[in-house]
Amino acid sequence: MMKKALLALADGTTFEGTALGYAGETSGEVVFNTAMTGYQEVLTDPSYTGQIVVMTCSHIGNYGITDEDGESIRPWAEGFIVREASHTASNWRSQESFSDYLVRQKIVGIEGIDTRALTRHLRDQGSQPGVISHITMNPKTLIEKARHTPSIVGQDLVSRVTCTEPYSWNEGTGLWPTEISSGHPDSTPKPSTSYKVVVFDFGVKLNILRRLVDVGCEVHVVPASTSAEAVKAMTPDGILLSNGPGDPDAVPYAVETIRTLIGWRPIFGICLGHQILGLALGLESHKLKFGHHGANHPVLDLRTRKVEITSQNHNFAVGLSGPHESGSQGPEMFQSPWGQVLITHRSLNDECCEGLLGVDMPIMSTQYHPEASPGPHDSAYLFRQFVEKLMQQQTT
Amino acid sequence: MPRRTDLHRILLIGSGPIVIGQGCEFDYSGTQACKALKEEGFEVILINSNPATIMTDPDLADRTYVEPITCEVVERILERDRPDALLPTMGGQTALNLTVELYQRGVLEKYGVHTIGASYAAIQKAEDREQFKDIIQGLGLHVPLSGSIHSRQEAIQLIETIGFPAIVRPSFTLGGAGGNIAYNREEYEQFVEWALVTSPVKQALIEQSLIGWKEYELEVMRDLNDNVVIVCPIENFDAMGVHTGDSITVAPALTLTDKEYQRMRNAAIRIIRAIGVDTGGSNIQFAVNPKTGDQIVIEMNPRVSRSSALASKATGFPIAKIAAKLAVGYTLDEITNDITKVTKASFEPTIDYVVVKIPRFTFEKFEGSDPTLTTHMKSVGEAMALGATFKEALQKAIRSLEIDRFGLCSMYGLDGLYQTNQSAQTDQEVMAEIRTALQTPTANRMWQVADGFRVGLTRDELYAITHIDPWFLEEIRQLVEFESVLVHARDAITVERYTRAKQLGFSDERLTQLLKHPVDTMHALLSSSGLSLPVAYKRVDTCAAEFEAHTPYLYSSYGTACEARVTDRKKVIILGGGPNRIGQGIEFDYCCVHSAMALQEEGIETIMVNCNPETVSTDYDISDRLYFEPLTMEDVTHILDVEQPFGLIVQFGGQTPLKLSWGLANIGAPILGTSPDAIDRAEDRKRFGALIDELQLRQPRSGMAQSHDEAHHIAETIQYPVMARPSYVLGGRAMQILYDADALARYLHTHAHNLATHPLLIDHYLDGAIEVDVDAISDGQQVVVAGIMEHVEMAGIHSGDSACSLPPYSLNPTIIEEITKQTIALAKSLHVVGLMNIQFAVQEGQVFVLEVNPRASRTVPFVSKTIGIPLAKFATKVMLGKTLAELGLTEAPTLTHMSVKEAVFPFTKLGALDVLLGPEMRSTGEVMGIDGDFGWAFAKSQAAAGNALPKSGVVLLSVKDADKVRTVDIAQRLCRLGFTLQATKGTAAYLREHDIAVESVNKIKEGRPHIVDVIKNGQICVVVNTVGSAASQDDSAPIRKEALYQGIPYFTTIPAAKAAVLGMEAMRKGKLRVRPLQEYQAALKGMQL
Q1: Of A182, A305, A309, the CB nearest to B139
Q2: Intra-chain end-to-end CA distance of chain B, in Å
Q3: How many CA atoms lie less than 13 Å away from B542 in the CB half-sphere?
Q4: Which of B221, B458, B924, B932 has the most CB atoms in a 10 Å sphere around its CB?
Q5: B139 touches chain A (CB under 8 A)
Q6: Does the active-site annotation cover B169?
Q7: Are residues B408 and B398 in contact, defined by beta-carbon separation less than 8 angstroms?
């Protein structure tokens, strides 16, 4: 008979299911992800540190696990919740079954629960701490534990995931090209000179590094706490602020560092990197009710009215403080200590700020993930835009 | 970008009759397009020859031309109405092909009409295989090795580079028609010859076969601002080699990694941009090598399709509706998502359930047809189911098919067995049989896979034989294993295990089969444990619950939180017709949709239950609430429990809901309209006989035989010819006309195996009688005879297969009066409340009642459109208690025009041995010709059915002796029209005796050149061929078959030949005129438009 497992949420809701993965107990903020492919990429995305992920797609694990598709060297999600896990793998690249992987990587999971009911609950009540246990089936104990699970608000999760030493990276996306536009085929010649980019690792996904290599960058990854002086000493052509877990207000040291780098070299911020850049520019952060986690989020470019289908994973967002006009009529401009900044993108779903572009200084950022993985490659062009900025910088 | 303001009037081309490969999914898309364009304030002009569609309802478009979909007709419409634009992407391949033809002939330019959605250039790029290949390769993507050929010579050269196996496909045909896989040179040459003949442009495509690769489809949408979204990835359960229309398909794609899926998505986006489809939906098919991940682009349809209908129903994203809005200038971000009401259409749906579609086939009706599934589509319908998991969805889809299977029941009596390897238990013979059966893909393959697991074949072995992805095989294995656990624990089923079974999608019916005791005991077990059956309804919301769903589009799932949110309004449930099949198709869906509209007009909440993804009825826009569920007692009962409706309507969905009506009445379901008892009285032979006697009406003499001897005795007593049929048959299955005792003996030998339990029904066959179909409506008091249709073919030909005329074209008024009288008497005696259909036969001035069906019939839409009265709507209101008088319907209007309905057959697609019409229905669709007189209406119906009558040429006559007298008149009139006659010896001699000039031609047996040679050589323009005995039928089958494949109009009855002559005479006398339904109907109401 299958072993039972229990999920308890801080608000007292419980779901009984079947044990999946490592036999144990885990806690974290429960969030749902609506992507239909890419469970391995989700599991290994450092941004999920501190979170238990509910996959809304019915079947997870079907195509197994392959080293090639990891977004970091190990899974970071605190726990995994699925409707039905596949215990065998069917794919030519698969090296291990999904369930074996969870066991090996000590990820506690639960399957066989009504993930739709859970998702609706999180949508209506907001994401909240929860506990998955294979050990005790006592709801009271688990609810209590869930209540004592610290909120991700104010927690410096970045320090848990960032690298300890700088390293360089030279592998591209290889077999898995990313361009969708017939006008910009993969064969776009790489720039003759290669640009040196320093990547602040707030929890970087490897595909960001691969994409930088694809567009001709020499990539150097540094720990989140690296000082501006140390970065300047590396004489990069540009700086990338990576994605990462949790609350941007919990990494004030990074915000400070970035303040001193704005205007010095082109900066590209992604996800948490975008939020950190936003805070540095004077925007304010707020927590979303249940966040954006999925691979189908439409984002409108307010300048061109073009829509990108994007991959997203964030619980916090940045925006202008106080009341403001929605930007559906065009890009909004705001004043920062370094000059004017455009809000270039907004979510079509909830008008959340999704992109920034410096008018008076070379910065750009997106709340969504142009490196995708998992998710659509519509925004892959942004890496090229970043390189164009680096080229301009060199010529001026 | 907002709506274009430079357009006012838009022409929409429909897809015409339902044929294999082009089904009622185009009524769904066309209806959505009409509604969307009207909503935007455009004037919509529609042409579609199919009267059974919702889209041809006069309320939907401004001008609805139910006319043949030909270049000539469209030119008349352009001349008359001067539309600004043509939307060619909603009517399947028919509309695309016609658009290409209109463009090439310069018609569009002449009338200043430009296409919206897809341009001529884009259509050509997607449809012309060479251009398509160049574009795909130019994008750095791969296509199968291929080339097109125009001759046998070229074909032989090409195969050198492509190699075997190779697919041979005729160019520009529907539904992959004619695609065949050649494994050797001999087959190859044979297929090439056939493909060249079949292709309308005499071109064939030779292609590398990707047999065994995985198959996927993406539904892609693009707007004028170049935004592109993928609505849904669909994965085929069956590997490449089986046409996707014949494959079991699954959404979302389940066995692709994100890397692989994104590669496919990127390719799809680049393709739609490169082909240049401006706006709207396209379908792109891919093959994936399971060993290397290599992807190959198979094809693209630059239009909505069967798959886009499926994707729309699977996700809740209405592709056709949005495509229509994009075509008139909107961009995706300007269109609101109907279901969430807060988000935009510019996104990609994500689904948190699994959708399974299973096709439905009808091989049993076509003697000699080959049930092997190939690249050439053969299915006639499909059922779709949604479930929380693949297993649940699969089992729901199986029972939705209505093929008397309620799960993965064994085909070899092995239920409950499960072996992990071959053990001593394994019956080697059965295993060998299963292995052999699995080599050839057929409709039974999934069941055979289950049996494979039962006898100990492993997943790897099954994969090697079938190439079905191991993930799917594993799912089936788990179901088989679970069944065996259940069977072994048969006497000690716990609540937990029962609940688990329900979560896995097991029906009570299947559980009863496995456990060998009724599941009522299970329900008792549950209630004794204080538990109720935890069936819940979930919403299809496009977004995996991320946003609230405001549209109640529901599916059931076990053991989960319910989102039905039942209202306390007065509500009525309509049961739909389930998967399309021959005998039950779009006509019934039309009735269900009309019923929903009528209920809404009455302020009643409407709830639709159906499982056919192709239909308009399963559009969530049609009713207040939609349950996408199997139409079985169990599933319907749960909905009744949840909804507690005021009423239940079973009259409109054909046999499907009718079969459930007794059971539903027994559990107290509030069935509206005619009582189940009255239905039984009409269907039960004995009770019906009593009714006929009571009313002093006539029926053909008949008897019921429980032994062969008794059958012969009855046949002698009631006199030959007789019509024989096994009891409990649908659509005339195995029904035959027998002329003598020999024929009866042969029939008994093949069809009557168990007469003691399934007696044989034998009726006297009314030779040469005229058959008449009547549709009537009654409120229980008053009866209105809405339409009397005279069949063109004589009685004995299934009414669904016969052409018919409304009003009658040859019956005298006395007969019509008598038929009216009898109809009223029958309706009153049966206390019909709602619709009723009666089939009469008229022989030598006497009227016989053949059959009474107290429900909506196949002809309701045809009659409604002809007389301008929406019968199903009125019937619904009558069922709610209104009287006909209150509704203002006291008599049918006197018609000033004629309508002819003609049937359309799938013979070429199924490779049937013979094309003779008979008592078993075999048509898949119908068309309507409408005009001022019968001749023109008939001529139009023939043109619409693809058998346009010629204006000159050689007519070939070969008739049986009994028909010779009546052939004289036909021959004389043909001569007067300037046709030359050829005839087989007997016929020729007889005609010469009557001073008719005719040339003789050899019968097949008489030496060459014979009749088939003459047809093959293209010398003949019409064939008239009637036959009597079985032997002569066999002899002459090649004649009819050749005419069919050559596309030459052929007539197998004298009345039909005569109708054709009337048609040709009309064509000679006057010019083709086109007129919209709205004008015909206004004329009936004495109004001027």
Answers
A1: A182
A2: 35
A3: 32
A4: B924
A5: yes
A6: yes
A7: yes
Q: What is the chain A residue with the closest CA to B347?
A: A298
What amino acid occupies position B848? F
Domain boundaries in chain A? 4-147, 158-395
Cβ neighbours, 10 Å, residue A208: 27
Query: Which residue in the block uniquely carries the two structure tokens 């010529």?
Result: A395
CATH for A4-147?
3.50.30.20
Give yes or no for a contact between A33 and A54, defined as CB atoms under 8 angstroms apart.
Answer: yes
Asked whether the predicted pLDDT for residue B177 surpasses 60, the reply is no
What is the reported pTM? 0.95
Taken as a whole, chain A contains a residue count of 396
Count CA atoms within 13 Å of residue B472 on its CB side. 28
Percent of chain B with pLDDT over 90: 78
ipTM of the complex: 0.97
Q: Which residues of B469-504 are buried (b: 16+ CB within 10 A; e: fewer)?
A: bbbbbbbbbbbbebbbebbeeeeebeeeebbbbbbb
Q: Dump pLDDT digits (tens) for B748-758.
A: 988 877 788 88
C-alpha span between B1015 and B123 (Å, rounded): 34
Number of CB atoms found within 10 A of residue B718's CB:
16
Handedness of CA A183, A186, A189, A191 (dihedral sign): positive
Paired sense of beta strands A217-223 and A167-169, if any: antiparallel
In angstroms, what CA-CA distances link A5 with A9, A50, A208, B62?
14, 20, 36, 61
Distance from CA of A121 to the nearest CA of B (A): 9
Query: What is the residue type of B341?
Result: K
Asked if the C-beta of B478 comes within 8 angstroms of chain A's C-beta atoms, the answer is no
B545 touches chain A (CB under 8 A): yes
CB A258 within 8 A of CB A277: yes
Q: Do A120 and B561 touch (CB under 8 A)?
A: yes
Inter-chain CB proximity B262 and A66 less than 8 Å:
no
- A 10 A CB-CB count for B1049 gives 24
Residue labelled with tokens 């996707």: B244
The answer to whether B688 and B679 have CB atoms below 8 angstroms apart is: no
CATH number for the region A158-395 comes to 3.40.50.880
User: Residue with structure tokens 């989140």?
Assistant: A224
Residue B421 has pLDDT above 70, yes or no: no
Does the beta-carbon distance from B257 to A309 stay under 8 Å? no
Task: Read off φ and ψ for residue B504, nearest 5 degrees.
Answer: -80, 5
Mean per-residue pLDDT, A147-156: 94
Q: Using the beta-carbon criterion (under 8 Å), do B352 and A115 form an inter-chain contact?
A: yes
Catalytic residue (choose from B32, B48, B180, B301): B301
The 10 Å Cβ neighbour count of residue B986 is 15
The pairing of beta strand B85-87 with beta strand B114-115: parallel
Q: Is B811 strand, coil or helix? A: coil
Helices (H), ranges, B401-454: 428-439, 445-454
- Three-class SS state of B342: coil
- Of B258-267, B279-288, B528-537, B1070-1079, the range with the lowest mean pLDDT is B528-537
Contact state of A181 with B140 under an 8 Å Cβ cutoff: no
3-state secondary structure B387-402: ECCHHHHHHHHHHHCC
How far is the C-alpha of B18 from the C-alpha of B980, rounded, in Å? Answer: 34
Catalytic residue numbers of A read 271, 369, 371
Say whether B545 and A374 touch across the interface (CB within 8 A): no
Rounded distance between C-alpha atoms, residue A308 and residue B797, angstroms: 58
CB B333 within 8 A of CB B227: yes
pLDDT value of position B608 = 98
Which has the closest alpha carbon to B253: B300, B298, B283, B214? B214
**Does residue A227 sit in helix, strand or coil?**
coil
B258–A contact, CB cutoff 8 A: yes
Listed residue (B916, B852, B869) closest to B1051, CA to CA: B916
